[in-house]
Amino acid sequence: MRITFPRKKVCIKLGTIQLTSRRDRQLTAAREWENLEQTLAEVRQHGMSRVIGNVVPNINERGINAFSVPVFDRQGFVVCALTIMGHADRMPSDWDSASALALKQRASLLSQRIGSQR
After folding, report:
1. Same-domain status, 82 and 30
2. pLDDT for the residue numbered 14
3. Tens of pLDDT along 10-37?
4. 30 lies in which domain range?
5. Taking Cα atoms as reference points, which of 67, 28, 62 lies closest to residue 51?
6. Within 10 A of 30 (CB to CB), how many other CB atoms are there?
7. What is the pTM of this model?
8. Which residues have a Cβ under 8 Å from the Cβ of 55 and sit 6 or more positions away?
9. What's the rounded Cα separation, in Å, for the pair 4 and 103?
């Protein structure tokens, strides 16, 4: 991946929209790409993704934990995902927690019912 840095930085605020320089966008994209690669590695290893302690402003200041598991069709394509979330202080974030394992089992059963061989 190549990251270039322009000579001028442009930052304009328009209400709640902020336009930033190309350099800032490229650095943000690079960080997001690294996070995506890490997330995909976890999904491949565990067969699901998770969120740990994310705070949802104006809704939940304590943070939430969540798991999401793909449901596959008979061609092996993801057709939807099953997700469970709860307060971080009430729902464990362990990959092998009861919530995570139950969700994974339900997604597998649903995949089988619609013809998946996975």
Report:
1. no
2. 39
3. 443 334 444 556 666 666 666 777 788 8
4. 1-46
5. 67
6. 13
7. 0.68
8. 61, 62, 63, 64
9. 43
